[in-house]
Amino acid sequence: MIDNFYENLKGFSQFSQLTDESYYVPAPDDWYVVITDVKGSTQAIADGRYKEVNLVGAAAIIAVLNTTGRIPIPYAFGGDGATMLIPAHMIDSVKETLSAVQAKVKAIFDMELRAGCVKISDLYAKKAWLKVAKFHLSPAISQAAFQGTALALAETWLKKGGGPVINCTATNADDANLEGLECRWQPIQNRHGTMVSLLVRVTPEHEANAWNLYGDIMKQIADIYPEAPDAFPVQANRMQMTFDYSKLSKEAKIRAGQNPVSYAIYLLLMYIQNMLGSYSFRTGKKVGTFDGQKYLAEMAANSDAKKFDEMLRMVLDSTIEQKASLESMLKVRQKKGEIVYGIHESSQALMTCLVFSLAGNHVHFVDGADGGYALAAKQMKQQIAKTAEVA
């Protein structure tokens, strides 16, 4: 059945296999690309609202997964937005869902979430292409990898027009089902000097040799960070839950809505759950059936600090010297015209979670604090614009 094409994909379990083309299959032409994006995210980040931007980006994903019954669909979190592929027969329901998320985000955070969908056949008609693979983070969680040019074209159409995008129109915020969206962890402090949010995209001129280039770049990154697990920002023994009202209130607002009674009850339950969870994490003892130590190990495995959605994305816990070596290597390749890239440094990383169950089925989105991927993307776009001026 074509609706199960992602579920039936042969996946891979080593990130180094990302560049093995045998794992990629063309996206069905009767499916849709769904793109969401926080309009004005750069200014929101400058105003210190980067956690809210992350939460809004994740909200679109969880709402769609709740709408589709959580059948396996390919998706990627981009910090200030998301990309998803949706079967044709579900697209009307997904549009309604995203409209409800738009309304809720506007009502709760006064942010504008852009959302639109494009039929993949329309992208293929413009000579764009899209292949999908499945990276197994753990036995319970897989992460989609996207190869091609179609997602970039769909994003351009959404933001600038010029293509057959079906835009969502905000309706009733109460229709947004965000069950599973959680944001309860303290920021992840760097251990080595800095947190690096990294984006790397091969230029169109080198697209024919893209996988060789990405493979070489990944090997060079591995050489710079030889102790790869140590550079991974999520370490189970360092994660701590937050009891900071200013942080917990963001989840409570978007989950409970504007009813003050519902909000107060939800917030109280968060504090109780956090206290019980922290006790289990700290002591190693179970609370009922909840095993805190097992959950922490699963959380580290199920975190998406490295991924590929038509570009390489990574969050790295880096020394200052490693960051300098990384940027030097990338500058050489950028001057050769092989790539464009973006790097953003911060002292912390942030985590936003989708918790379907406490027993394995939970995924954790990682982004650099203070803007992370969004500000790295701004730098990369500046490089693209300079390249265009020279051309």
**Overall pLDDT, averaged?**
91
CATH architecture descriptor of the domain at 2-177: 2-Layer Sandwich
Approximately how much beta-strand content do the residues carry? 15-25%
CATH class of the domain at 2-177: Alpha Beta
Give the count of helical stretches: 12
What fold name stands as the CATH topology of the domain at 2-177? Alpha-Beta Plaits
Termini Cα gap: 46 Å
Give the ordered list of helices and strands.
Answer: EEHHEEHEHEEHEEEEHHHHHEEHEEEH
**Backbone structural class:** alpha+beta
Largest sheet: 5 strands, antiparallel
Q: What Rg, in angstroms, do the CA atoms define?
A: 20 Å
* Weakly predicted, low-confidence segments: none
Q: Give the overall shape, derived from the CA principal axes.
A: globular
Number of strands: 16
Query: Helical amount among residues, as a percent range?
Result: 40-55%
Main sheet: which strands, in order across? 3-4-2-5-8
Quickly list its features.
single chain, 391 residues, alpha+beta, Alpha-Beta Plaits, five-stranded antiparallel sheet, four-stranded antiparallel sheet, globular
